[in-house]
Amino acid sequence: QVQLVESGGGLVQAGGSLRLSCAASGRTFSNYAMGWFRQAPGKGREFVAVSSRSGASPNYADSVKGRFTISRDNAKNTVYLQMSSLRPEDTAVYYCAADQIYSGRSYRQYHYWGQGAQVTVSS
Q1: N or C: which end of the chain has fewer CB within 10 A?
Q2: Are 87 and 121 in contact (CB under 8 A)?
Q3: How do the pLDDT tens digits run along the chain, 123 residues long?
């Protein structure tokens, strides 16, 4: 079991950058794949990025590829989402997710979720 706490959201101008953090409780963080999803008002939850347990071969949605970077620091029990070249359409609540087995794109397969962090990108 793991609990996730997110931080780093806020308001940024288009073209700017933000870094989201997701800190996990427990001592088995390295055993979990960690993903990021987002949900804009009136829309469904959308896959953003995922990191495997080892941190190798991260996977990104086409909409963020080349702009966002997922990374993890197992020593700090933290996963990050570095967001650059932000666009107004990136505005959403961003959720981190964890699972002990699954490391794909389907949010329904993740067992643990953070509380969400609001990211607003102004024009």
Answers
A1: C
A2: yes
A3: 789 999 999 999 999 999 999 999 876 667 788 999 999 999 999 999 998 877 778 999 999 999 999 998 888 889 999 999 999 999 999 999 999 888 899 999 999 999 999 999 999
